[in-house]
């Protein structure tokens, strides 16, 4: 077995395994991953529970050393890890290497944060009493991660968990065991006490509910689909557990008449189609005002059809395959739905390449309205639609008319409209003349409405989730 589970500091086999298939070439099996059962999961939670007390007592220097070691090694091996990522998930090699580097930077950031943990000391309102406000670790945290950022998302959950003194059980997505395994293998050599980081691969529908129900798990951080997230929130509510959810998006990119056309087309091409559109921050609704509409659509369609789609590991490829057969079917069926609803579709057909993989051409659907299913439901593929609007006010209304609220963008040269949009876009992240996707690692990430729940991930704001606040009173 190539990827074993990691429980209490030991690598553990399972009788059942899951093949790790390269979406660019399904004859290429990267390896076989453990398929853990409930007994293994309980063992991992017990190991984390025992280690949590030990790690909670660690010094900032110990935490810094572990996080810095991991960050340094990931950065040194970013090409190799990026290649593994591209081979198992299908994003292009530059995207894979970029994501691996991002994971390394996240560990470096939280290494620094480990040294910067502060509290408040106040005078009491009563005479002679001191008040201290400090942050304590939460304890055992369950981390459930998706396939689309196979190393960065585990990194941005594990690094703050360790930084603030918690122990974790990671349940990665079934499609991307290689990156999770590689990351945990580095962590296993980082000087962490046994049991602080545990990896249990297996079926999400089987392991997920148990991870949430187990009383020893005090908090759950989840990134994935809306239906799964809703179920997790309900179960965490019943168990009175802390929960943090990052889910879908139907992110709008508004393009106004006064936009710089080249900047707008670049931002939309990147936002809609890079990483094969498999980003929760992808620009899937392009809301375009009348006077620029036709020029914008013509320029974007030309750039889109020139994108080189193919094997993620080949040099010069700009868009890799879809992650698996199920997601490809979903994307193609949304293209059909959009044309059935009256949209005009360019691209969006299945493609054949030298190797058998899950290839499709990027799709642009024009002449759509915001009421159509293609503009209400998340596709999670390289499919973007264009909604024609009269002016800025209508654009803002349509941008906000969605159950989601992750990222919202505008392309304009008007300071007035940019400022108004930043203040009034109903989203956790707002982009001006930039793609809706592509964020920094040292500032908060997250959304509003149906996209997110709980406190923010990343940057200093991650402390909110991974700690609990303690107020102590002393009469010296
Ligand atoms: P996606 O469509 O991106 O696969 P999912 O929400 O199905 O989104 O999966 C995201 C993560 O949630 C994966 O690690 C998956 O195994 C896990 N998961 C799936 N079903 C459940 C569940 N019922 N409870 C908890 N986690 C689950």
Describe this protein's structure.
This protein has 476 residues and is of the alpha/beta class. It folds into 2 domains: 2-247 and 442-474, Aldehyde Dehydrogenase, Chain A, domain 1 (3-Layer(aba) Sandwich), CATH 3.40.605; 251-432, Aldehyde Dehydrogenase, Chain A, domain 2. Helix content is 40%, strand content 23%. The protein is built from 15 helices and 22 strands. The protein has a 7-stranded mixed β-sheet with strand order 14-17-18-13-12-19-20, sandwiched between helices. A 6-stranded mixed β-sheet has the order 9-8-7-10-11-21, with helices on both faces. Strand 3 (17-22) and strand 4 (25-34) form a beta hairpin. The longest helix has 23 residues, at 93-115. The radius of gyration is 23 Å and the shape is globular. The structure holds adenosine-5'-diphosphate (ADP). Adenosine-5'-diphosphate is lined by residues 144-146, 171-174, 204-205, 208-209, 224-225, 228, 231-232.
Keywords:
single chain; 476 residues; alpha/beta; Aldehyde Dehydrogenase, Chain A, domain 1; Aldehyde Dehydrogenase, Chain A, domain 2; seven-stranded mixed sheet; six-stranded mixed sheet; 15 helices; 22 strands; 40% helix
Quick structural summary:
This protein is of the alpha/beta class and 476 residues long. Helix content is 40%, strand content 23%. The model has no long low-confidence stretch (mean pLDDT 98).
């Amino acid at each position: 077995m190539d990827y074993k589970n990691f429980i209490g500091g030991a690598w553990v086999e399972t009788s059942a395994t899951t093949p790790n298939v390269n979406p660019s070439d399904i004859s290429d099996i990267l390896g076989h991953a453990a398929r853990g059962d409930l007994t293994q999961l309980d063992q991992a939670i017990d190991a984390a529970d025992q280690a949590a007390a030990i790690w909670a007592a660690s010094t900032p220097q110990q935490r810094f050393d572990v996080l810095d070691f991991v960050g340094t090694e990931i950065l040194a091996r970013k090409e190799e890890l990026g290649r593994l990522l591209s081979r198992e998930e299908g994003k292009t090699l530059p995207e894979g290497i970029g994501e691996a580097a991002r994971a390394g930077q996240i560990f470096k950031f939280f290494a620094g944060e480990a040294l910067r943990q502060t509290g408040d000391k106040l005078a009491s309102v009563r005479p002679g009493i001191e008040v201290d406000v400090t942050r304590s670790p939460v304890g055992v945290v369950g981390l459930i991660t998706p396939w689309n950022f196979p190393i960065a998302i585990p990194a941005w959950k594990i690094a703050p968990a360790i930084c603030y003194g918690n122990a974790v059980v990671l349940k990665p997505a079934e499609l991307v065991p290689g990156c999770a395994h590689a990351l945990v293998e580095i962590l296993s050599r980082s000087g962490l006490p046994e049991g602080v980081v545990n990896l249990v691969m297996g079926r999400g529908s089987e392991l997920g509910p148990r991870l949430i129900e187990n009383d020893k798990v005090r908090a759950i951080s989840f990134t994935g689909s809306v239906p799964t997230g809703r179920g997790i929130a309900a179960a965490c509510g019943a168990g009175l557990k802390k929960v943090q959810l990052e889910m879908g998006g139907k992110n709008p990119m508004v393009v106004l008449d006064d936009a710089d056309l080249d900047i707008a087309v670049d931002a939309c091409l990147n936002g809609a189609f890079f990483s094969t559109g498999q980003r929760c921050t992808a620009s899937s609704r392009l809301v375009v005002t009348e006077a620029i509409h036709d020029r914008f659509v013509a320029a974007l369609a030309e750039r889109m059809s020139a994108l080189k789609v193919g094997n993620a590991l080949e040099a010069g490829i700009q868009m890799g395959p879809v992650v698996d057969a199920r997601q490809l079917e979903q994307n193609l069926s949304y293209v059909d739905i959009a044309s059935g609803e009256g949209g005009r579709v360019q691209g969006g057909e299945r493609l054949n390449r030298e190797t058998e993989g899950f290839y499709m051409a990027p799709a642009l659907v024009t002449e759509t309205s915001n009421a159509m299913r293609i503009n209400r439901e998340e596709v999670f593929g390289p499919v973007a639609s264009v909604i024609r609007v009269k002016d800025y006010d209508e654009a803002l209304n349509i941008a906000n008319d969605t159950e989601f609220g992750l990222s919202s963008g505008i392309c304009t040269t008007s300071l007035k409209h940019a400022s108004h949009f930043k203040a009034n876009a109903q989203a956790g992240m707002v982009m001006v003349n930039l793609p809706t996707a592509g964020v920094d690692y040292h500032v908060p990430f997250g959304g509003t409405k149906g996209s997110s729940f709980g406190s923010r991930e990343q940057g200093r704001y991650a402390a909110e989730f991974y700690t609990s606040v303690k107020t102590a009173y002393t009469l010296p």
